[in-house]
Write a structure and sequence with these properties.
Length: 466
């Protein structure tokens, strides 16, 4: 069984005697730097037209023709850009052990950029390609904080990357059990027909056609006296679309439809790892949206935990249904902040692309703070409105609410508005419509699963409550 990667796989403390230097050189100081090179190395870099321009990367041999050093051009830019430049290095250099030299080499952000950029998911290869590029940390870097954040992101990525044949609801529950035991969090599960008894009819309806029972997993951690933060995450282990079956390619990536729950677990790992003084509750509706004789159908009228009856329009809009019951439970007490994470709509991707998840909240101050954190830690998001006038598009002739709007417009907004109908009490409610996946290599983001917005939300929470 696939195990989660520890941050230490790519980030090591200790002596840097035997590691290969990655020297960050700007256009201004290239001449100075070159004075310390051997004539052969200088000629090699001249041949390669290396002059320190931002983004240039060259492997430089030593006298034996082995890798002596790596030079990374950082142009005239200091500070901010360096994160992006370093985040792209690990997957461009051979397996080995490295350390950074030059301005900023001792900064936390640069070590984080390496750690996030070095992750490789190769657990299913019989003979994994050489894939470990280790960074020896500078003494100035806060290793504890770095490992906490990086390890949590690896956890989220790996959960998303594991395919649905190995991460159905049963195995996912097992993994969450191990996870919560590691942090001494309390875990409880309601599954199968017990969902009906305990009044989670929507979670049951979406997941009942799968051979693995749908379930609601709850984690609790922290002191009762601390402010309450509740995280809700969509955990659809695979989304076939149900009877409204997804066509062709649209199903290919649907193992990532539990990405919202992976983001919630990533943030939970960061909070618990840092012992943030909050009272944390995590609610994960976990199910597979599959097909059988007992599938829920378009036209079905289903009660919800909150009491509202829901008219089913399209069984492929399953995420908002399982979330509605989980949010209703979360909202049965007054919480300080209620967060919802979900790979909810294709419309969010059409509008924003894969790398800029939209988020929704009525709390302007919180929105500003979240955006500030997002840009600071380079885990981006962009606010879209809970546009009130569209709320009526969810009205139903026969039930209290329809879970989709009839028309082709504003699909991410109307999905968010549907969720908002199930939240009344929370002091602040924020919903993120994430993609959960990096389709093209980005600095610090290898192709594959990504618990988007986790680092940003944690940064905001640590500033507020830390
Ligand atoms: N999981 C999908 C949304 C999704 C699709 C996210 C592709 C990322 C990439 C969700 O369950 C879904 O299928 N939504 C439908 C809703 C529609 C039927 C109203 C969609 O967006 O097409
Ligand atoms: Mn769907
Ligand atoms: Zn889905």
């Amino acid at each position: 069984m696939t195990e989660f990667k520890a941050a230490e796989v790519y980030l090591e403390a200790g002596s840097r005697k035997h590691s290969v230097p990655v020297v960050m050189v700007g256009t201004e100081n290239y001449e100075d730097f070159a004075k310390g090179l051997t004539p052969a190395q200088k000629n090699w870099l001249a041949l390669k037209d290396f002059n320190g321009k931002a983004g240039q990367l060259q492997l430089v041999p030593d006298e034996d023709g082995k890798l002596g050093l790596v030079v990374l051009g950082i142009g005239a830019s200091a500070g901010d850009m360096i994160y992006n430049l370093v985040g792209s290095v690990p997957l461009q250099v051979p397996e080995g052990i490295y350390h950074l030299e030059g301005e900023g080499a001792d900064s936390f952000e640069v070590a984080l950029a390496w750690g996030l950029g070095a992750y490789v998911f190769a657990d299913y290869k019989q003979s994994p390609a050489s894939d470990t590029r280790i960074l020896k940390l500078d003494k100035a870097v806060d290793g504890e904080k770095l490992y906490n954040i990086t390890g949590a992101v690896y956890l989220g990525r790996t959960l998303i990357n594991i395919p649905a044949n190995d991460l159905g609801p049963d195995v996912y529950e097992e993994k969450i059990k191990i996870f919560s035991a590691g942090f001494k969090a309390k875990m409880s599960v309601v599954k199968g027909d017990a969902l009906l008894v305990k009044k989670f009819p929507l979670i049951h309806a979406v997941g009942r056609a799968s051979t693995q029972e749908p379930r609601l997993i709850e984690l609790n951690w922290g002191k009762k006296s601390h402010p309450k933060i509740t995280l809700v995450g969509k955990g659809i282990c695979f989304d076939t679309g149900g009877l409204n079956l997804k066509p062709g390619n649209s199903m290919n990536l649907m193992k990532k439809d539990m990405g919202g729950s992976a983001t919630a677990l990533t943030i939970a790992a960061m909070i618990m790892g840092a012992k943030l003084p909050v009272q944390l509750r995590v609610l994960l509706p976990i199910a597979e949206n599959n097909i059988s004789g007992n599938s829920f159908r378009p036209g079905d009228l289903i009660p919800s935990r909150k009491g509202l009856t829901v008219e089913i329009d399209n069984t492929d809009a399953e995420g908002r249904l399982v979330l509605a019951d989980a949010l209703a439970l979360a909202d049965e007490e007054v919480v300080e902040e209620l967060y919802c994470f979900a790979t909810l709509t294709g419309a969010a991707r059409v509008g924003m692309g894969p790398d800029l998840p939209p988020f929704y909240t009525d709390d302007d101050e919180l929105a500003q703070n979240l955006e500030a954190s997002a840009f600071e830690v380079k885990d981006y998001m962009w606010r879209l409105p809970f546009w009130g006038p569209y709320d009526k598009w969810l009205n139903s002739q026969v039930a209290d609410v329809n879970h989709v709007s009839g028309g082709p417009f504003a699909g991410s907004i109307t999905a968010a508005l549907f969720l908002r109908r199930f939240v009344e009490q929370a002091k602040s409610f924020v919903h993120f419509d994430i993609y959960g996946w990096t389709p093209n290599l980005l600095p610090g983001k290898p192709v594959g699963g990504e618990p988007q917005v986790a680092r940003a939300v944690f940064d905001y929470l640590s500033k507020k409550y830390g």
